[in-house]
Design brief:
- Helix 1 packs across helix 3.
- 84% of the residues lie in helices and 0% in strands.
- The two termini are 14 Å apart.
- It has one domain.
- The radius of gyration is 14 Å and the shape is flat.
- It is mostly helical.
- The protein contains four helices and no strands.
């Protein structure tokens, strides 16, 4: 169950990272409220996952899921570049997450 909590926490991390862009410096109420709610849920689920997972592994995977998702949505929603080197680096993060899961 801890791995599921951790994965969902990573998804909410994507939500608040992308949400920050839409808050316009915390000047828009609804995006700000959703972003803050995503932060709370993300950290809460990370805390639950840490009850049984090593902190280094859990934190690395949480940030990795968030990084991959945020970079992907940046490309898809915000028109950020998707060059070969950037995609290769994202692939390395995926490999790191898979590796950590396999050894944990």
């Amino acid at each position: 169950m801890a791995w599921l909590y951790l994965f969902i926490a990573g998804l909410f991390e994507i939500g608040w990272a992308i949400g920050l862009k839409y808050t316009h410096g915390f000047t828009r109420l609804v995006p700000t409220a959703l972003t803050l709610a995503s932060m709370v849920v993300s950290l809460g689920l990370l805390g639950l996952a840490l009850k049984s997972l090593p902190v280094g592994t859990a934190y690395a995977i949480w940030t990795g899921v968030g990084t991959i998702g945020t970079a992907t949505l940046g490309i898809l929603l915000l028109g950020e570049p998707a060059g070969a080197l950037r995609m290769a680096c994202i692939g390395l993060i995926v490999a790191g997450i898979v590796g950590l899961k396999l050894v944990s």
